Structures are given as structure tokens and as C-alpha cells.
Amino acid sequence: MPGKVLSALDPDALDRLAERLPLGSALISATNGKTTSAAMAAEILSPGSRLAHNASGANLVSGVTSTLLSARNAELGLFEVDEAALPEIARRVRPRAVCLGNLFRDQLDRYGELEHVAERWRAMVGELPAEAVLVVNGDDPQVGDLSRERPGGLVFGLDDPRHARPELQHAADSKWCLSCGRPYEYAAAYVGHLGDYRCPACGHGRPPLDVSATDVELRGLEGVDFTLAASAGERRVRLAVPGLYNVYNALAAASLALALDAGLDEVQAGLERFGAAFGRFERITIGERSLLVLLVKNPAGANEAVRTLVVGGAPKLAVVALNDAIADGRDVSWIWDVDWEPLLAGLDRVVVTGERAAEMALRCKYGGFPPEAIEVVPELDRALDRGLELTPDGGELVVLPTYTAMLALRKIVSERGFVRPYWERAA
Amino acid sequence: MTAIRVAHLYPEYLNIYADRGNIAVLANRAAWRGIELAAEPVSIGEALRPGAHDLIYIGGGQDREQALIAPDLAAKGDAIRESVEGGAAVLAVCGGYQLLGLFYRDRGGAELTGAGLFPLHTVAGERRLIGDCLLECELEPGEKRTLAGFENHAGLTRLETGAEPLGRVVAGFGNDGASGFEGCRVGAAIGTYLHGPLLPRNPWLADWLLARALEHRGETLALGELPDALEHEAHLVSAARARSRGGRF
């Protein structure tokens, strides 16, 4: 809020506050994983420098300004930035490094079509200061292509075809060649359209990787191990958060840190210290039971949450909380693009909640789930109680909330004394 | 009984607003009445034979995908019009709706020729029309029903004189934000901007399309009632959203 007031009173506040940072700023943007990638990068960089980091996810101009205002002694700015706000923030902050993770279809009612975001990013890259380092995910065709505009940066990606999906998921984006429009062929598709692609017609394909993850071992819900390979050498990394998508987040954080001159040992230690960004993947103990909270906000992210749960031992019960505030996306059609079926196949019962609970109930029903096993409980607190009541002592209740439902859920749980409010942790 | 034959046009290109949800609703609501429904993807370069399908479905895509399929769709125009004249049902949503019109003109003035089924044309506007939307329709004389959905389009669609809209806008923008109408109907062909997807929360329209498809098949089977309490609730929530925050200029 102070950032909003200051920006209104002094439109150049952000530019001047950013200019004062002796070590400059780094920006991270992506449809999925920007909060987690930035939190991982903060874990790597914070022992070495005093950071201004918008850990609570306030990622518009006002949020970045507020963060700078409240971190007056910071040396280095580390900001996750909203995809649509990135061009303006990059122009004003004049970053030392920009890390671009991925572009998935997300809240079309808010961001517009994916291609338009990609075009704006391309223009932004063209206007970066000459000395700025561009770090991109080469596994995303739209994002990886930006490295061709600006050589000398870092390209990261995943190299372990054992973990490829057998085919592109239903909701895959960017599957048509950027140069000629033919379908890409994938040697391996890992998460949505992220993978090792090549156009059979014109040869447009994944750029060479500077930083890669190989020998990935998924450890169910407990975490994931991989070998981080960069020009400086290799390190085996044990992450305490699960899923291939977190390997991508770790690669983004590691590459950005390397671009900011961190050493491989710092990178490895930081990634291994990392817990989870709030609400993204979180266990909360409630008396005899625990909650496992996985944020879902768009098809690609929700597909990975489903895959993580199923790989980790499919649950019998889940609570899905669907809200449609602006931050969730007012258009809830995205839930129909999510492949919920592998999760539904293992469930005995689903409790649907939130302002659009009935819509989620229909998604389950028309996905083949028996209607009599669907409970519609629109009020979040009652749905939580119902879920806990159905969970045996010592058991774990899986909750999949959208963004504002996650915030509301944390508030309910913290009011009951089970978790500290996130703003304490973020501070 | 033989199956209802559905042609799903360009599913790998046009699927942006969860179009598979509409297909899942048609398939399930047929199956729950003991009727088989076979959906066949028909894509670029694949022939669409008039009369071979009882229902044609086409969804929406992003600009790039729509431009990729537009020439092929225009080439299928005769077959689509002939199918509809023969009584086949059509559901066209968003981009598919625009491209079944006469033409689509983008911001730069470039035109994509449409398939010419619906007597309308679309011109890209300055801003997107985004929000919840509620319509009142009367597809059968004397039977007024509501449709609740979500619209997100930059195109402003204008119906030719005498063209029949799908419905009257109760809340939201509709075809162009000005006419007070949304969508278009030609025989058993329905075009609309409403997604959500449209059919789960408006099961009466799914049943209307299935009934038209059965008629095309030569069946005079009455479709029995289904327990639609969840669908009804989702409709009410969506309709309330449109009334409280549907788009308006």
C-alpha cells in the first residue's frame, strides 16, 4: 500500500529507489513458478548480499516500490514480476539480469492471449540495458526464442527423457512452430509444452543449454534430486519440494544466481535449504491431522499438482477450492482444461468449495466421477471441517485451492492458531 | 440404435476455452439415456462429407491458431452449409462462431474469409469485451430459457438484416456490446461467444442439440429428464455473476 501511495505522489519513485541499490536488481517472471523461483534465488543469494525481495508476491509496480521502500539498506533487488507488468518494471528498474521462466495460458480474461504477452516480452528484451544478462528457459519455445535476440545470456532446460510425458497434454500451448506454423516434434515433453522440441519442417528448435538438470530422481511428495550441470561444473542437488516443475523453478533460480556471479556451491546450498514459497506446497499440522496444500491457478500448474499427488501415492479424499475473484481469474473455464482424471480415479470422495464450487462439482461429474461422491460445501471453513472430519487420525487432508481461496484458507487456519500469518514469514 | 455422429473440427487448434467440456457434456448426457455418441476429429485437409455427421462442433482458439485453420474452414464452407440445410446441428463457440460467418477483419485490416454459414461478419475492435454474460433465448416458440456463460472477444460481430440472433442480452456485452443481441441461429446451427464451457451449466441447450442430432438421424426418441441439481446450481451462480458484474460499456 505505501508503494501505491508513493507511486501516485511521485511517479518516478520506483526508478530512483532502484537506482540506489549498489548491486542493482534482478527480475524473475513466468506464468508458473515465479514466486517459488524468486524464493529459491533469495535463499541462494541472501547469505552473500542484503536483499530487497517481494516475498509476499506483491509483483506489480506498487508492490516492487513498497518492497524497496521498506528495505532501505538492501544491496540487491530481487523481484518476482507479474508477466503483464514486466515491460514497465524492466524499463524503470533497469535490471542487471532478467530471468524468464515460461508462458502458459493463464487467466485469458486478465492477461489476454499468450502470444500478446510473448510479443510484449520480446519488445522488453530489445530495450534492456546493454549490460543486462538475459536468462531464459530454453524448453519453452516462445521464451527460449528470446535468447536468439540477445546472445551472451544463459539458457536453461531439462535433460532427462525418462521423465518425459508420453504425449503433449490436452492444454498444451505453443505447439506450433514459431517460424513456420507446423507442429513441433518433441524428443521429450516434460511439463505442458516445456521440453526438447524441434520443427521437422524448418528446424527451429530448442537452443543449446548452458545450465541443465540431468539424472532427475522424483522422491514422491518428499522432494526431488537432480544433477545441476553448468559451465563451471556439476553438483548433485536434493530439493525438499517435489515434482519436475520444481526442477524448472530450481534451474531458473540457479541460472539467475550464476548470472549474478554466485558460485555453484552457494547455488547448491541455497537450493537445498529451500522449503517452499507460502501456500504453494505446504504441510500444516492441525492437531492429530495435517493439511497438504497445493496451490492451483491454471491448467499447467494444476496438471503438475495432480501429477505430484498421484506419483506421491494417490489420496482417497481431496478438497478443491475454486474462487473467481480477479486474482483467481473471473473466467473459471480453465478447470475444464485441467486433466483431473488421474486424481479423480483414486478418490473415494471429493469436497468442492469456494464461490464456484458448483462449477467444480460439474467438472468432476462430467469427468466421470460419481455424483453421489461429490460434496458441495461453498463455505471454506465448513468445507475444511468436513474434510478434516473425513480424515482419519494421523492422516493427511489434501487441499487444492485457487489463489484467493489459499489466502482465505491460511487465514482460517491461522485464526485457529495452527500457522503463522504469511506476512510474518515474509518479513 | 445407431450412434450420434459428431464432427469435432480442429480440436488440436481450437480448444482455448475448455471446449472439450462441451463435448464431454454431450457424450455423457447421450450415454445416460442409453444413446451412443461418437466424436470424430476432423482437421486440416480432412474431408467433411455433408450428411455424414449429425452434429458439428467447433471451438475457439488464439489468433494464431485461428489464422492457421481459417483457409481450410472456408474451403469446408459448402459442406457445412449443406449439412445444416439437411438438418444437422452445429455448436460454434467464440473463434469458431466468428469464422462460420462471412468474414473476419483484424485490426490491421486483413480479412479472413469465413465459411458463410451464419449471415454475419466480425471486425476486430479496440478493446476486448470480457465478462460474465446472461442471455434469454427462445429456440422453440413459447419456450423462454436462459443461457449463462463467459465472453472474451475483441471482435465486434454484426448480424446481417433479418438474421436470427441466439438470444437477447440480459447482462453482458453480446455480439458487439451495442445491439443487445448475442450469437446467431440458422436452423439447428447455433453460434455464440459464450464459453465457460457453455453446456455444463446450460444442460437444456445440450439436450436441444442432442434432440436435433437425433432428428437428423431419423430418430424420434424423447430425451428423458436427468438429475440436474448441480447443473442448476452452477447456472444460478453464473447468472448471478453476469447480473452483478457482467460487462457493459
Short description:
The complex is a heterodimer of chains A (427) and B (249). By secondary structure, chain A is α/β, with parallel strands linked by helices. Chain A has helices spanning 2-9, 13-19, 34-45, 61-69, 86-93, 108-111, 114-126, 141-144, 146-149, 244-259, 264-273, 299-311, 341-346, 357-366, 380-390, 403-415, 422-426, and strands at residues 25-29, 51-53, 76-80, 97-100, 133-137, 154-158, 185-191, 194-198, 211-219, 223-230, 233-239, 281-286, 289-294, 317-321, 349-353, 374-376, 396-401.
Any chance you could write out the topology, listing elements then pairs?
The complex is a heterodimer of chains A (427) and B (249).
Chain A: H1 2-9, H2 13-19, E1 25-29, H3 34-45, E2 51-53, H4 61-69, E3 76-80, H5 86-93, E4 97-100, H6 108-111, H7 114-126, E5 133-137, H8 141-144, H9 146-149, E6 154-158, E7 185-191, E8 194-198, E9 211-219, E10 223-230, E11 233-239, H10 244-259, H11 264-273, E12 281-286, E13 289-294, H12 299-311, E14 317-321, H13 341-346, E15 349-353, H14 357-366, E16 374-376, H15 380-390, E17 396-401, H16 403-415, H17 422-426
Parallel strand pairs in A: 1-3, 1-4, 2-3, 4-5, 5-6, 6-9, 13-17, 14-15, 14-17, 15-16
Antiparallel strand pairs in A: 7-8, 9-10, 10-11, 12-13
Helix pairs in contact in A: 1-4, 2-4, 3-10, 3-11, 5-7, 10-11
Chain B: E1 4-9, H1 19-31, E2 37-42, E3 55-58, H2 63-75, H3 77-85, E4 89-93, H4 95-99, E5 103-105, E6 111-113, E7 120-140, E8 143-159, E9 167-171, E10 181-182, E11 184-186, E12 189-192, H5 203-216, H6 229-245
Parallel strand pairs in B: 1-2, 1-3, 3-4, 4-12, 5-7
Antiparallel strand pairs in B: 5-6, 7-8, 7-9, 9-10, 11-12
Helix pairs in contact in B: 1-5
